[in-house]
Every structure is written in structure tokens, then in C-alpha cells.
Amino acid sequence: MTRFIDVSTMSRLVHDVGLSRFIGELADTIRQDFLRWPEFNKSARVSNHSENGVIELMPVSNVGRYAFKYVNGHPSNTRHGLYTVMGFGVLAEADTGYPLLLSELTVATALRTSATSLMAARALARPDARRMALIGNGAQSEFQALAFHSHLGIDEIAVYDVDPQATDKLIRNLSAYPALKITRAASTAEAVRGADIVTTVTAAKAHAAVLTRDMIEPGMHINAVGGDCPGKTELHADILRTARVFVEYEPQTRVEGEIQQMPRDFPVVDLWRVLAGTETGRQSADQVTLFDSVGFALEDYSTLRYVHEQAEQRKLGQNVELVPEADDPKDLFRHTLADSSRAAMRRVA
After folding, report:
1. How confident is the model at residue 344 (pLDDT cuts 50, 70, 90)?
2. What are the catalytic residues?
3. Global pTM?
């Protein structure tokens, strides 16, 4: 049987584990899998674009497990009462193809994106970083804020969004964390002034320049999350030219990330190599580091692996017959019959 995790079960799992602990443990799980990078069969995600957005499939596997995520990105969805990003995923046995887990990945994608941001910042940001600017206060913003507050020592965040109601929502949701000082900024430039870390997580599908070169200060770490598909960027190209840029899976980031603006030979550093100690991360306190985060399938693999383990330990979710029970692996036709007829055939056999 396949374990099924719906949204309400995921919510209970996060509550039982604890939100901050969940993000921290998930960051550790993703890091463990990044350190095994050469063991995985990797490919860029398969994308189907439309006028309003994109639908993607994100597969990855190793000798033991196969995983994929279905995910969309439709910025105009909020006008219709829908989330911009929605997803679900499957974790399966690689040697049989049997699906072990079918899980919601809308809530979990926000969790894994914040956990990946945390993992990268631990390796790239200055260790004395205490102030962050958060540009874009939509559905994923609270997760980013709590990841950096709970696990990186960020105690002050300046927030800005072109939609004041999004900022209202963010401040309201984070009011339960009194140790985190939230400052509402009147502009992006005001928010990033004096920040040690700048996180951009905007939604508009456009070649935007949310950050410009004049806003960047020595020693900043930029966590660029929102630019994640062709034709969608957040940073002016001049920022890329002055920063040390780190990527997840370069063939995918070249098409979807901030570096889609740059020549094909523009130099980048694989994040997994920094984690493994074979490449240098930050080279000086004054250097500007940039994590060009587009989201990669291995992070979803790690998330499904973590969710599966936690759900089994806590006996959460339900077992569903997602694929037929193989009483006779050569007889699929019996599954077109009524339940009573199948039971009778089993008795005869």
C-alpha cells in the first residue's frame, strides 16, 4: 500500500514536529543528499509554458529511490482565489517502481525552499549576519523569515511588497515570534539598506529588476528565490557581474535562474561542491555572494524522504491502493470487475 499525505495530514505533521524544527531538520536532510550529489541521476525539469504560467515535472533518482514533483507557477492565480504555486509528489522504489508515498507538496515546497535557502546561507553568508531584508511578502515569505530567524541568528527583518496587504499578512503571521523585530519599509531600497542578507521572493513572471546594483553593499548575501523560470528574473544583470554566484543544478539554472541574463560562459559555482569542501564559498567578508535559487528536484526528493520517515514514525497519513494489489501479477483484467467478483475469483484460485 502507498502512504498518502494530504494537506491536513501535512499540517498535523508540521505541528507535531514543530515548524522551526521541521525546517531545520529538512535543511539537514537536503544537505545530506547534496553531499551525495554524484550518486543521483539528475535532469532539468520538464516545463510546459502557457500565457499565464508554467506546469513542471521534476524527477530525480538514485539506486534506491525515485521521486518526482508536479508543480505549477501561475502568478495571476491569486486573483481567482488560488495559490500561485501548488504541487504534489511521489517517492517510489527504484528497483520495482512501487510508489511508497503520495504527498501534497504545496505547503512542503514552501518548507523545502526555506530549508534550502537556510542551507545555502549557512555556507555563504557572513557568520555575523543579523539583519535581513525580505522583498516579496507573499505565500513563501514567512517560511523564509522563520528559517533565518530560528537557525541563522537573524533578529531583525525589514519587509517590503508592492501589495501592502501582503505585508500586513506577513506581520500578522509573524507576531507570534516577539524576538523577531519586523520593520515595514516604504521601498525595496529602504528595506535593503544595511542588510546583511537580502531575500527576494517575488512572483511576477517578468524580467524585473527588483534589486539594482546601487542597492548592494559589500558583504551582502543575496538569496534570490523568485526568479525560477524562463523570462522571470529579479536582479539587474550588473549585480551578477559583481557577485560570486552559486547554483543548484547549472543546466537548469542557465535556463531558469538569474543567470539566464548572462552569457553561457558566465562563471558560477556549484553549491554542492561548496558543501563538500571542494570549492570555496565566500572568499572575503566584503564579497557579495548570490545564491541563484530556482528549486531543484533533489530538494523535493529530500523532502519526500523526510516526510515519509516522519509520517511512518508518527503513524500519520493513510494507506491507499494507488496501484492494484497483485494477487496474480499476470491478471490485470480482474480489477475491472466488481469487488465481490474479484473476491470470488480469489477464492476459486
Report:
1. very low
2. 228
3. 0.94
